[in-house]
Amino acid sequence: MAIGIVTGIPGVGKTTVLGKVEELLSKRGVRYKIMNYGDYMLRRALEGNYVKDRDQIRKLPLNIQKELQLQAAKAMYDEAQALGEGGVGLVDTHAVVRTPQGYLPGLPKHIIEILGPNVIFLIEAPPALILERQKRDQGRSRLDYSEESVIEEVMQFARSFAVASATLVGASVKIVINREGSPEEAAAEVVKVLTGG
Ligand code: AP5
């Protein structure tokens, strides 16, 4: 089984790209599971009455974010294992999360060791385009990521955090550009890396 962790700054389009990855894997008859880390954390955060929506998660006290992060990783690991030989597990998440208390590693040692990925993808796009995508995506509240200088800083931190996490488990780090209007191109690159063709 191959595990890929797909990271990218909020609004870069990783969930959109993963939608296209899903289409490609289905067409090829590959057994796969795409797991959105935020969904797994949100489910538990709602059960605990900590938040009303996913954009409040990163503003929670750090100890609660870390507990939700751990519970989510364990649940995703179990689901990925169930795919068995030849399956592909994909985790939609963040190498780093910008919180009011500072940068929180999205994939610290105890989490990355649970997930055990083969590759960590960094989905990237020019900061100005990320801002435009955020503005078009009205249903979400990403005001804490809505300045070009902040986006640039987070992208730099994300690369450093991704390398640090990958080093702990011997995973590779692959940068994939999500070009404007062509998320399928980025998806094809992700599938190629994961399946070798
Ligand atoms: P998460 O669920 O990942 O939310 P997010 O960060 O806002 O990311 P999204 O998935 O909503 O945005 P996206 O980048 O995938 O963009 P989208 O495809 O929607 O995380 C929620 C929260 O969970 C986090 O804030 C954090 O608190 C917590 N969390 C998650 N992982 C964690 C971890 N490991 N540790 C701790 N906490 C964690 O696209 C955006 C827009 O762009 C759309 O309108 C789309 O149509 C458009 N678009 C996309 N691609 C293109 C393209 N190529 N051309 C033109 N438009 C495009």
UniProtKB/TrEMBL annotation:
Its EC number is 2.7.4.3. InterPro entries: Adenylate_kinase_AdkA (IPR023477), P-loop_NTPase (IPR027417). Gene3D superfamilies: P-loop containing nucleotide triphosphate hydrolases (3.40.50.300). One of its GO terms (cellular component) is cytoplasm. It catalyses: AMP + ATP = 2 ADP. GO terms for molecular function: AMP kinase activity; ATP binding. ATP binds at G8, I9, P10, G11, V12, G13, K14, T15, T16. Its main location: cytoplasm. It is found in: Cytoplasm. SUPFAM superfamilies: P-loop containing nucleoside triphosphate hydrolases. Keywords: ATP-binding, Cytoplasm, Kinase, Nucleotide-binding, Transferase. NCBIfam families: PRK04040.1. Belongs to the archaeal adenylate kinase family. This is Adenylate kinase.
